[in-house]
Amino acid sequence: MANKPVNALSKAIRTGLIDAMNMALANDNVEAIVITSELALFSAGADISEFSSGDLAPILPDVLTLVENSSKPVVAAVNGGAFGGGLELALACHYRLSTNHNKVGLPEVHLGILPGAGGTQRLPRLIAPEKALQMIVTGAPTSVKAISELFVSIVEPSELLVQAIKVAKQAVGKVIPATSLIKLSSSPEIEALCEQTKVQTSAKARGFFAPAKCIEAVKAAFELPFAQGLKREGELFEECMHTPQARAQQHFFFAERVAGALPQIAKDTALRDIKQVAIIGAGTMGGGIAMNFANVGIPVVLLELEQAALDKGLELIRRNYENSAKKGKLTQEQVEQRMELLTGTTSYDDLSEVDLVIEAVFEKMSVKKQVFEALDKVCKPGAILASNTSTLDLDEIAQCTSREQDVIGLHFFSPANVMKLLEIVQGAKTADDVIKTAMHLAKTIKKVGVLVGVCFGFVGNRMIEVYGREAGRLMLEGATPQQIDKVIYDFGLPMGPFTMGDMAGLDIGYFVRQSRKEFISHDPSYCTVADELVEAGRVGLKAGKGVYLYDAGSRSPIPDPSVLDIAKRKAKELGIQRRDISDQEILERCIYPLINEGANILLEGIAQRASDIDVIYVYGYGFPVYRGGPMKFADEIGVKEVLARMKHYETALGEYGKHWFTPSPLLEELAQKQQTFAGFKA
Ligand code: T1G
């Protein structure tokens, strides 16, 4: 197989496999067959881009039945990994060999579906049921050595084809071990395993539709003869394939990849070499950022003005690594290797040779400017100067240097060593090669880099502000924090706005608002309760009290009636008539303004495409991937519906609605032309 870049089993490949099998079966000189790949990996499975085409004939299950029922032995030489239908192809072969450093997997569940070409029926026939179930329900890639029973042998890449042909020749004339001939039967243990997996999954994969169907399909492998099990798998596959969740997750698969695509920059633009990085500030963010580079072998020097702060920062990093080692995610040797890559200094002079500096200091313009002025003096020409600012004007920061073309924003999300999202903020004068280097660097440190423009809050924080505003206002109007949080939690986010605010610290929002009084001057109603709480020292979980109360050592929020008393008092002062508010209104008022702000962001060219906003919101704020992200969700429910509801609240909420619920012109335009955000090109 040689269908670049990943041997997706497209129509051409499926047809090619059928032709090759028929040719081999018809040719008396052919005694056995080996299927392998000329590319770096065996196959990435079905061609996801074909799913929406509808014309999937010849369907993969039929191709694999032809392979499995072959009268001549078929050997799969799995090189470099096999996923989804690619692994299913190998399972339909009679013998399998693999190269030794790769992984295989059945990641269909991440696409809102399940292995639909026999994977749920053949894998449990070849490896232990619990391993098979875990692979299918979690979609996690598995090292071939962990399921070595699947392979005749696991060899060096250079040995693979030779060994596969040898196995094929030895198989000639022998009884063909078709996987489907292996008998399975259910048992109380299998029943218990499926039940237990169901319970675990409903917690871990809350709200997802496909995982439970994966379990049902595997269960059928133990309860039905192979042919009926295959039929049942097909029914469950079709059931999943036609859900909004499958459409959303398949959208997201490509959204994530296109987000990392380079903007219109000359192809021959050279990358700048990033051999050593400096981080200014060894606090939680600075330390987390530093870890990303140490994790991939790039040396980092951390700068703090005080030795004590520096020592504390390096100690925190070590503790993080030691925790990973305790969980078995790192060996002690890896911990030491990474720590060796991390050095500290209290002098800017030590940064004269670094290729990239990322400042992660206090979110205050005057502090940022001091740092960049100092960097401008000591850093070598061509060094990239990056700010981790989450809201401040990057252009204003760049203007305090003599090298605006070398300044860019690298907005990491906390915890920076965990969160996949990296907003790459392009300043007005940021050079193309700096942008290209930053986008490439995101991939190197295993982040999903999304290019955004300069405005308050860029994309993510600009949108989260309208969401938080509505939550605060709804509490004044009559909803309780726990009601609002439950609506959002049930919608699929990991937590509601008030639990999130307490977790992050209410003082963060408070401080940002203090620096933007003009913005909230129009109507401070939505943050008046939060401001009073912060001024009373109730800054959230870290203080044991914020919107909620927290028992010592516990993170579970306890509603506090006194907060509602504040809301009632403030509502009275502001002349807001409190009322019962429906869950639906809460959902619409928290999510639709988010979408509306995304539409404005697209109109202003702050994001390159709607799916980038989806990637930012899923990876940065936990928007449920089975809804595809806010803009995909709008396309799914219909832009017209979002517009209609924005207009409803624009009039229903009096002055407040008039100001905050003005529909974006893009929302109007798309609704009027019956178009979608997916089709919008900035
Ligand atoms: N279909 C179409 N395009 C694919 C693809 C696929 N399965 N996999 C990758 N691509 C594209 C991807 O969009 C990108 O394109 C390029 O290939 C490189 O991908 C019946 C129905 C295999 C681990 O879910 O997990 O089989 O951006 O950047 O980092 O049961 O690709 O360059 O234009 O990810 O080296 C199940 C999906 C399908 C595996 C390699 N299979 N792919 O990672 O490359 S459903 C999957 C991956 C199925 C059957 C069912 C990864 C990879 P572009 P990449 P990578």
UniProtKB/TrEMBL annotation:
GO terms for biological process: fatty acid beta-oxidation. Its EC number is 1.1.1.35. GO terms for molecular function: (3S)-3-hydroxyacyl-CoA dehydrogenase (NAD+) activity; enoyl-CoA hydratase activity; isomerase activity; NAD+ binding. It is found in: Peroxisome. It is an enzyme of class 1 (oxidoreductase). Pathway: Lipid metabolism; fatty acid beta-oxidation. It comes from the Bacteria. SUPFAM superfamilies: 6-phosphogluconate dehydrogenase C-terminal domain-like (SSF48179), ClpP/crotonase (SSF52096), NAD(P)-binding Rossmann-fold domains (SSF51735). It catalyses: a (3S)-3-hydroxyacyl-CoA + NAD(+) = a 3-oxoacyl-CoA + NADH + H(+). Keywords: Fatty acid metabolism, Isomerase, Lipid degradation, Lipid metabolism, Lyase, Multifunctional enzyme, NAD, Oxidoreductase, Peroxisome. Residues 457-550, 586-674 form the 3-hydroxyacyl-CoA dehydrogenase C-terminal domain. Residues 276-452 form the 3-hydroxyacyl-CoA dehydrogenase NAD binding domain. Pfam families: 3HCDH (PF00725), 3HCDH_N (PF02737), ECH_1 (PF00378). Belongs to the enoyl-CoA hydratase/isomerase family. In the N-terminal section; belongs to the enoyl-CoA hydratase/isomerase family. This is 3-hydroxyacyl-CoA dehydrogenase. It comes from Glaciecola punicea ACAM 611. The lineage of its organism: Bacteria, Pseudomonadati, Pseudomonadota, Gammaproteobacteria, Alteromonadales. The gene is fadN.
